[in-house]
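User: Before I run my own analysis I want an independent prediction to cross-check against. Here's the chain; please return only the structure tokens and, at the end, one sentence I can use as a sanity check.
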Amino acid sequence: MKKKILALDIDGTLTNSRKEISQKTLDKLMEIQEHGHIVAIASGRPLPGIRKIADLLQLDKYGGYVLAFNGGRIVHYQTGEVVYQANIDNQTAKKIYDYALKMDIGMVTYEGDVVITGTRIDDYMDMEARLNHMEIRQIPDFRAYIDFPLNKCLLTAEDKKAAAVEEELKRLYGNKVNIFRSEPFFVEIMPPDVHKATSLEKLLGILGMDVADLIACGDGYNDLTMIQYAGVGVAMANAQQVVKDNADYITLSNDEDGLVPVIDRFILNDL
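Assistant: Structure tokens:
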């Protein structure tokens, strides 16, 4: 048996529309871990927003990995060791904050188990905090405050404005940070050349594994790089069209246990 690594996005992929992992999907994931395969959660969420799922999958028992902040930090969940992380240039983050104020859009970053912001708290930020089971806190002098290592910043705006902001920030700072939308209303600010694919490449190097043995499953814009990179890139039926266009395989939706046929076909079929 050749060991495989299964990289999974959370929202829209691993979890269904109720933000739950079905029992059928959970049973399959436990089965492959029992056979020695590795599960890696690759999400735009901060670590606190992944813990509940990582615990449910027993990644601590089976030695799985968490790739938080779209790959900005890799954690070996069994030991808690941060095996890789990348940070945003703080001066660039401060310039983007000034831009957010000028454009009257939201901006957050993360400190421990807290979402912090220097802009008004909008519904998108509130959703981000609730989704990740984190407190959200306004910081009076945000610009001066963000002098610690930043794995990721997140801008929030309604769809059309977010699209325009993404393009303008790419023009202004695209050589200093990685900028993309993970949702129509979220503009992610990441360290340069850091995304789910580069993070998985780092992890494969750490594990001494080949990309041919990587199966990556996702549905959103921020999953595109890992789906293009993986030996087998899988798009959910509910995925964005560009993700489907670049996938090797399109499975059922997240509400139809779409990961189950992927596991059966590309992992358990080799046993």
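Sanity check: The longest strand covers residues 106-111.
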